[in-house]
Specification:
mainly alpha; 8 helices; 69% helix
């Protein structure tokens, strides 16, 4: 089974994706990692995955085909029509290239992007970055009154009455 094109193709897709996300995973495990740098790493990872989606198909396909030729694995003709014997759709006339590119490659890449976007959406990222102004290291050197006020008004409006919110800036 490991000498079938499908298996080799999926392994190459996973190798590309994990190559991009591995660095982020390692950095996120560092205790010395600060939130701003971590969010920047997440953003960079999202950009790299998007680049893979937009521009990585040709290189991936060439790498897989080269691997298969080197190891004597039979490769499909990407120009032929794809026939799915399990989910037969008589009116579907997509090619094998379309199947591997759209039904597998792009779906897997999109799922990875969706997972990152779900875990690190704009609101979560903004909240985490704003929280860095409350970091006690270096005698609160990153403390910023404007950010703390914005943090309170955007994310904790139910915890402050209107009068308290108005007095917050003066108290800080």
């Amino acid at each position: 089974m490991m000498m079938y094109f499908d298996f080799i193709f999926i392994l190459h897709v996973m190798k590309e994706l994990m190559g991009i996300t591995d660095l982020l995973c390692k950095k996120m495990q560092l205790k010395s990692q600060d939130i701003v740098n971590a969010m920047d790493d997440v953003k960079t990872t999202k950009v790299l995955i998007q680049k893979l989606r937009d521009n990585g198909w040709s290189k991936l396909k060439a790498d897989v085909l080269s691997f298969c030729v080197k190891h004597g694995v039979k490769t499909p003709d990407f120009g032929e029509f794809y026939v799915d014997f399990i989910n037969s759709r008589a009116e579907d006339e997509s090619t094998i290239d379309h199947h591997y590119r759209c039904d597998i490659f792009m779906v897997v890449v999109d799922q990875q992007l969706q997972e990152l976007n779900c875990r690190f959406n704009k609101q979560v990222t903004e909240l985490l970055i704003m929280c860095t102004s409350l970091d006690p290291r270096n005698s609160f050197s990153s403390f910023d009154i404007n950010i703390v006020c914005s943090l309170a008004s955007k994310f904790y409006p139910a915890d402050f009455e209107e009068q308290e919110m108005e007095n917050l800036r003066c108290q800080l």
